[in-house]
Amino acid sequence: MASSAITSSSTPFINKKDVGSSAFSSQPSFSIQTTKKNMGFKKIICVMSPKHTERKPATTGSLKTGMTMTEKILARASNKPEVTPGDNVWVNVDVLMTHDIGGPASFAVFKEQFGQNAKVWNPEKIVIIPDHYIFTADERANRNVDVLRDLCNEQNIKYFYDIKERGNFRANPDYKGVCHVALAQEGHCRPGEVLLGTDSHTCTAGAFGQFATGIGNTDAGFVLGTGKLLLKVPPTLRFVMEGEMPSYLLAKDLILQIIGEISVAGATYKTMEFVGSTVESFSMEERMTLCNMVVEAGGKNGVIPADKTTYDYLKDKTSVPYEPVYSDEGARFLKEYKIDVSKLEPLVAKPHSPDNRAFARECKDVKIDRVYIGSCTGGKLEDFMAAATVFLASGKKVKVPTFLVPATQKVWMDIYSLPVPGSGGKTCSQIFEEVGCETPASPSCAACLGGPQDTYARMNEPKVCVSTTNRNFPGRMGHIEGQIYLASPYTAAASALTGKVTDPREFLL
Predict the structure, then answer these.
(1) Best CA proximity match to 97, nearest among 185, 203, 164, 183
(2) Which of 31, 129, 301, 389 has the lowest CB atom count within 10 Å?
(3) How far apart are CA 225 and CA 238, in angstroms?
């Protein structure tokens, strides 16, 4: 469907000299040093070129074969001059993230293998973010956070975003919310680094030009003790996106288009590298949406070259120097896809698979019971701004319950304080209230992963839902017979207004 917008080459390996796209040329590396506003750091101190020190062989010098971004990052992290797809390398990890689901089990593995009194390899490179099963009365879920708190105190973990008062999340200044959005907001996503997390959507951080992927609890336990992990270097699929983005499309539509084109197995253990003028025009939050769902195509990681947009986002968020990398002119790609985004239309993924792609307009007769706007994919500030834009343009009220779950505490505050462009000064929260949406909930993963029975907006009955989340497998948001249509915030908001799956062009054009 809409395949005319995507063309691909099946050449076993593509040499970029044959492609002729300047967007993939090697670029000089440089370091950016900033300081964090809180946690003992001051404001930004400088943006500067690095000192003239010995240059790393993984990014400069004479190479036998050009490398992709992912290959360069893994070569540098394994102290090798070069790597090729299929190589198994011991990688030094820059950041390990875990949360309330994976954390207790990962630490249990760590203690079993390294000893009950063992210390983690580096307490300043471990980030622990409770986010999945937080606002619930379930004792086992609550116990997970208590276990993490004890472990972080024992191990002196620097970055533990704790929550103690569940009745009012604002009473917890350290609590953030959804880990993948919080990682970015707190400055843990940096170009050229390796970030591993006990969550499949850790690939979101690839938007910052780093190698980011999900790992299991056993692997995480090993990383806790050593700071290393054996990884196989993946081959790279390159997606070149060109053309002006239509006003009724968002990054969610693009990734649904790609997954529908290559299938949920089309990128199995492969890197998905996104480039082109369209990607360059995206904000960091839209880039995060794009990388977030590469795992829904089986991808090992997604990655986008760092640029001014990246550096501007990070300049007041991190004090750690970083060095971006870029694919070489001679880099080899397993396959290349060229996408003319101007030809695309609003899409949905019908139940029960993210690759069950359809035009939103083709589903106009599908009656729905609810709409859900939230998650690491669709709960960022720009996602709520997009939904508010549709509501504002319609002048109507929603016809079905519309649940709003901000990804983080910062997003929650922003939707109550920042004006929506073109609204005359109204905030998202004001617009949501006017059209009859549910009051924005406490920031967390909430119903995206189903969770305990009392999880906010969980589908405890076989409902039909349009959702901005990333998966629509049976039982994903609760009831095994629930039907989930994945969509962009534009399409979700339009559907809320009609009570059916609706193309947002009905209100945006």
Answers:
(1) 183
(2) 31
(3) 35
DSSP for 473-489 reads -TTTTB-TT-EEEEE-H
d(CA 23, CA 20): 9
**How far apart, in whole angstroms, are the C-alpha atoms of residue 295 and residue 199?**
11
pLDDT, tens digit, 9 for 90 and up, residues 195-240: 999 999 999 999 999 999 999 999 999 999 999 999 999 999 999 9
Partners of 159 in the β-ladder: 127
Question: pLDDT band at residue 35, thresholds of 50, 70 and 90?
Answer: very low
| Predicted pLDDT at 9 | 60
CA–CA separation, 441 and 409 (whole Å): 10
What gap in Å lies between CA 171 and CA 130, rounded to an integer? 15
| Residue-wise DSSP of 386-452 | HHHHHHHHH----SS-EEEE-SBHHHHHHHHHSBPTTTTS-BHHHHHHHHTPPPP--SS-GGGG--S
Token pair in block for residue 208: 């910052």
- pLDDT, the chain, mean: 91
3-state SS assignment for residue 126: strand
Q: Which one has a higher pLDDT value, 17 or 3?
A: 3
Name residue, tokens 């993948």: 180
For 272, counting Cβ atoms within 10 Å of its Cβ (0-12 exposed, 13-18 middle, 19+ buried), the class is: buried
What is the C-alpha to C-alpha distance for residues 212 and 7, in angstroms, rounded to an integer?
27
Tokens of 455: 């999880």
Identify the three-state secondary structure at position 498.
helix
Cis peptide before 180 (omega within 30 of 0): no
